[in-house]
Inverse folding.
């Protein structure tokens, strides 16, 4: 048997992290089993349809490196792969259920929205209409929907590969609408028909569908079809300000793939992190490429408990991917986020990039980390006091003067010359390099920690600005 999985998003907007994880797991499972991954667009809810959303789906999957074997844009043997183009198919199969006594015409006046808000719980009197009454209503042109006729008695049981065996009393299930009054199917009907006709062997989706699954099982049984394997995924939660967690939403930060990419996260790092939201490999390893995920992914590693989206952990994972990038690729990708274009720092971007690559969790951090290169913000004079470097306010004035004298003597303003000059100052004055450079780094940045050391900063801001900041720092200390 060839494993066939599917991702069936609705074109209703951006790609939420939860939807992307479903697509990723379906893709990884199919590839780990040398199977096929299918993309199907579920656009039966025309009221929620968002123009251009299908393009967003295609582009997101492409950038995320999740490539479908069949779908609306690449074709396949089981098309059409867009549900609105399969309307006649659903009508045919709904009629088959009516003929089998597993569905019925409902002529009630309530809207489908009301039906969703207030399930009928098998109370609709239309389920007991005689064939003659149904025929008469149809001839009179009365509007109708087609409902599933759920058994009043007994139980329905199914096995989920994550949650195990689940049994539900049939009396708790409602006679859900299968075909709406406009002839379009509901998701609950279309997904069953399509999954069967497209040969889907394993259905991977969120745990929010667990409660609906017994009705899907009853549909499979009514048709006499083989029931696929089910893999329901736990929720993804976000951290609230008070430390509690709740279902991931926009209030927790960026929750779409596109927004995370725009914030400066690498697509491969996002995918790596999302893979870990509800799944664990057999070892403690956390950094994977897509090809490596395809090799190690298994259903046995899926969790039952909800995952928590942690932006700090995402930053760490992204940082690991950034550090592993070839430098030229990093420099090129990071530049648009840096804000240095058109400034005096543009010509020295590669130097800045070498300092940034091992120090950032995402590209969008770069402007904040280098803003001191443009201007020193007000700072506390006590930053000059450092016990480890035996730095005091008095010693800082003396060392800053020596630094100024050394800078004035430098003609060639390059990194090698700067390093050699200050190594000589340290040797001539019997001062270790750290204590020598501490006051100058504070004067030039106003920060306890900077990407790069004093000579790196000097090289980037130039001789004139270096002298200006060193003198300002010395004057600041003397004024106290």
């Amino acid at each position: 048997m060839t494993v066939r999985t599917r991702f069936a998003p609705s074109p209703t907007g951006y790609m939420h992290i939860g939807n992307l994880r479903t697509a990723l797991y379906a893709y990884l499972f199919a590839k780990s089993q040398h199977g096929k991954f299918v993309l199907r667009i579920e656009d039966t809810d025309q009221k929620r349809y968002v123009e251009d959303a299908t393009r967003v789906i295609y582009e997101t999957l492409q950038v995320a490196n999740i490539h479908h074997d069949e779908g609306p844009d690449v074709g396949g043997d089981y098309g059409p792969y867009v549900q609105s183009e399969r309307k006649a198919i659903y009508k045919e199969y709904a009629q088959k259920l009516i003929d089998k006594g597993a569905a019925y015409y409902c002529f009630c006046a309530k809207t489908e929205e009301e039906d969703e808000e207030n399930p009928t719980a098998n109370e609709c009197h239309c389920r007991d209409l005689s064939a003659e009454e149904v025929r008469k209503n149809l001839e009179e042109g009365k509007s109708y929907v087609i409902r599933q006729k759920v058994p009043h008695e007994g139980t329905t049981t199914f096995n989920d590969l994550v949650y195990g065996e689940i049994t539900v009393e049939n009396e708790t299930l409602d006679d859900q609408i299968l075909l709406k009054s406009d002839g379009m199917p509901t998701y609950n009907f279309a997904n069953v028909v399509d999954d069967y006709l497209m040969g889907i062997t394993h259905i991977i989706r969120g745990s929010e569908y667990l409660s609906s699954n017994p009705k899907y099982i009853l549909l499979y049984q009514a048709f006499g079809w083989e029931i696929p394997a089910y893999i329901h995924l736990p929720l993804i939660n976000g951290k609230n300000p008070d430390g509690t967690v709740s279902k991931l939403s926009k209030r927790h930060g960026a929750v779409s793939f596109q927004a995370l990419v725009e914030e400066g996260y690498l697509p491969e790092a996002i995918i790596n992190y999302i893979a870990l939201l509800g799944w664990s490999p057999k070892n403690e390893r956390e950094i994977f490429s897509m090809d490596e995920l395809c090799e190690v992914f298994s259903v046995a590693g899926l969790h039952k408990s909800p995952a928590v989206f942690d932006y700090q952990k995402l930053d760490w994972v992204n940082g690991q991917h950034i550090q592993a990038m070839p430098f030229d690729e990093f420099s090129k990708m990071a530049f648009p986020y840096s804000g240095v274009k058109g400034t005096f720092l543009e010509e020295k971007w590669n130097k800045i990039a070498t300092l940034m690559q091992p120090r950032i969790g995402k590209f969008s951090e770069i402007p904040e980390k280098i803003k001191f290169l443009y201007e020193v913000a007000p700072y506390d004079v006590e930053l000059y006091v450092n016990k480890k470097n035996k730095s005091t306010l008095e010693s800082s004035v003396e060392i800053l003067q020596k630094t100024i004298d050394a800078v004035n003597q430098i003609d060639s303003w390059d990194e090698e010359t700067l390093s050699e000059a200050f190594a000589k100052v340290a040797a001539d004055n019997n001062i270790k390099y750290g204590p020598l450079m501490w006051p100058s780094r504070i004067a030039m940045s106003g920060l306890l920690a900077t990407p790069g050391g004093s000579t790196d900063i000097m090289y980037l801001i130039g001789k004139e600005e270096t002298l200006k900041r060193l003198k300002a720092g010395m004057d600041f200390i003397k004024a106290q």
Q: What stands out?
A: The mean pLDDT is 92. The longest helix spans residues 17-32. The radius of gyration is 32 Å.
